[in-house]
Amino acid sequence: MHFHDDALFPELQDKLVITAAPYGPEWELDDFREDLPLTMEQHVQQAVDCYEAGATVLHIHVREEDGHGSKRLSKFNELLSGLREAVPDMILQVGGSISFAPEGDGADAKWLSDDTRHMLAELDPKPDQVTIAINTSQMNIMELMTEDDIAGTSLARPELYDTYREMTVPAGPEWVEEHLRRLQANGIQPHFQLSSIPQLETVERLIRRGKYTGPLNLTWVGIGGGFDGPNPYNIMNFIQRVPDGACLTLETLMRSVAPVNAMAIALGLHGRCGNEDTIWGAKGEKMTSVQQIKQLVRLSEELGREVADGKEARDIYHIGEWYADADETLAKVGFAPNRQPGQVGFTHHA
């Protein structure tokens, strides 16, 4: 991304799109009863509250009545149906992990099988987006958490701590290509969840080879443990490599969420918050998803940057837009064109 002399002027930046992740599949209900929904009605109300607070993208997981994260597509269909009616302007983004939460004490925190995850392309009603991981990697969400972060929560239990510490993200090349094919065939936009520059380079290669032909919506996920950490140099190096036509959101965890979102807002990027990312505000003080959203709205207003409404967020994300081929996609998202036969030197869009 290029930053011109006026790039930090808020009136010249896109309006802020806030993603809410208010379903916290890694937490048990007793970790934060005030903010973790259980019933379907509570799930829908959580979305309404987040939308009214200023969030326009909803990152979706769903719980079973026993409190565990649901792995049943029928539950997602039920929630999506309720959300379409309650928050019709919100961008509905299903978490591609479905639910990585273990089903019992000491059970593995595993993403579901490749075939099951492919079925996200068959959800009905269909979501606007499904998040997609690129390249199999470690996802040790415990690595950056402090003793204060987990004190008094279920994550302090050794069996759960060890389970999440050993978690990996399965996202090999064959699965990724097939998943992209199915999502595009059903008109669902992939939202790329990227942990580092090598994963961004893989996405670029997929575009160059015509495996993905659509808008480029990315989230940089700085959660450590196999992913980048919330280091400003990591963030800026990643931003530098992202093409100008992409839409970039920054995500991290625990008490790094607020400062990383502050950077995103100032830089003209987009933010994400909610209890999936953190349950903490100030040290030792719980903070609900709605309170986190309102904090980002206040900060954006202080800096003079407007917050997008639902329809504006859809325009910024180019929801429903698709491109004809690799050449058009490269031009639209801002990557240099592919080299043509006999062409020498650096390629560029004339």
Automatic annotation (TrEMBL):
Coiled-coil stretches noted in the UniProt entry, renumbered to this chain: none
InterPro entries registered for this protein in UniProt: Aldolase_TIM, BKACE
Alphabetical keyword list: Metal-binding, Transferase, Zinc
Domain of life: Bacteria
Names of required cofactors: Zn(2+)
Any one GO molecular-function label of the UniProt entry: metal ion binding
Name under which the protein is recorded: Transposase
